[in-house]
Amino acid sequence: MGIASEVFGEALPRAERYAEFLADAGVERGLIGPREVDRLWERHLINCAVVAEAVPADARVVDIGSGAGLPGLVLAIVRPDLSITLLEPLLRRTTFLNEAVEMLELKNVEVRRGRAEEVAKDLSVDVATARAVAPLERLAKWALPLLRPGGELLAMKGERAAIELEEAEPVLKRFGVRTAELLQVGHGKVEPPTTLVRVVAERAPRRAKGSRKRSS
Fold first, then answer.
1. Residues in a beta bridge with 199
2. What is the pLDDT of residues 154-163, one digit of tens each?
3. Rounded to 5, what percent of the chain is helix, strand, coil?
4. Are strands 83-88 and 109-113 parallel, antiparallel or unpaired?
5. Which residues contact 19 (CB under 8 A, 6 or more apart)?
6. Which terminal Cβ of the chain has fewer Cβ within 10 Å, N or C?
């Protein structure tokens, strides 16, 4: 818990309550596998918390396909300066998220039921996050229309991050992004460091054709 204390600081008690909720209701409702309970901190909570290193101050954030709140709820806990929308299409997951937000008394979080393509007309954010939602070429179609010009997609990825970035190049070109790169955060806090694909929007993109798929 030494690393957890370093990462969460004064927010650690709130993170501990969230971890207990994940291990209980999260498992019971099928949002977290039973085998994940023993590694909630290193594999999920700390792994998500270090994403905050890449998020600008006072940013408006949307967490696409938020599921159990990873990384969106964790970012809200560790970074109270952020304004976060947890976007999730499934009712049982939004119910869980609303209960977690109420229990944790998070004033900087909104839970919204829906898909990314459904809210693109009325949502414009600084940062879009996602974890284990879809390959980058599909995720980009959902996320980029939600970003203001110069906004960033921060997609948590694993060993295939570089391959996904290469495969998504045609889509990213079509959207006219400014930059697309791999970024590692959490050095010395989580092993291996968390890998992000960071995509910066050049302009407010139009919704790509054929993108009407589920965001979770």
1. 153, 180
2. 999 999 999 9
3. 45, 20, 30
4. parallel
5. 40, 41, 45
6. N
